[in-house]
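Fig. S4 source data, part A: sequence.
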Amino acid sequence: MTATVQPALDGTTPPEPVDYETWLAIVWPVFIAAAATGRTFTCYSVADENKLPNPPNPQAHWGRLITLLKEEGYIRTAGWACSDRPTTHHSGVRTWKGTAAARREAAS
């Protein structure tokens, strides 16, 4: 049985998922740059604004990315907001804010 690929809302077909490590190497610097701005953000807002590819396992890997960024000291919890992801019906979502470590990393 083969899975059907659902086109995005803009009609494009998302690229095939890459392996986790390759995906992480693509998205990591984008999230560091977002954290370095000092603005509050959601995971989805950064991914959407930068047209980032989905990971091989979106249900697990987006959250794991945020956990890694927090554990490495690049982001901290900022609060909660209504999600702007179209499929969540404005449910609550955690917001994040960059730390001084993210600003140093982005500057180097």
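Fig. S4 source data, part B ends here. Residues 20-36 form the longest helix (17 residues).
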